[in-house]
Design goal:
The protein has helices at residues 2-8, 12-23, 27-44, 49-55, 61-72. The chain contains five helices and no strands.
Length: 85
C-alpha cells in the first residue's frame, strides 16, 4: 500500500476508496485473488505446494496453505498434479 500511495500521490484512504469504486474490490482482495488463481495453475501443472507458495509471494508454505484453503475451500494438495502432461 505504501508504494502505491507514493506512486499515485494519494493517502491510503483515498487510494482504497478510489480503487474500490473503479474495481469493485479492495487492493488486498484483488492481490489475493490473483495470487490464488496463479497458485491453482501452478499446482495443477505439478508444482509442489511449497514451490507454489514461494512463487506467488508467500514466505511460509503453512500460511499459503491456510490462505489457499480459505479462498478455494480445499487444500492445495487436492489440486496438485491434476493437469500433468
Amino acid at each position: 500500500m505504501q508504494y502505491l500511495c507514493l506512486a499515485t500521490g494519494l493517502n491510503e484512504f483515498k487510494l482504497k476508496e478510489g480503487f474500490r469504486k473503479l474495481y469493485g474490490t479492495s487492493p488486498h482482495r484483488l492481490l489475493t485473488e490473483l495470487r490464488m488463481r496463479r497458485a491453482w495453475e501452478l499446482l495443477e501443472t505439478g508444482c509442489q505446494v511449497a514451490q507454489a507458495a514461494y512463487r506467488v509471494g508467500y514466505r511460509h508454505p503453512a500460511n499459503f496453505s491456510a490462505a489457499f484453503t480459505r479462498f478455494h475451500g480445499r487444500a492445495p494438495k487436492s489440486v496438485f498434479g491434476k493437469r500433468r502432461r
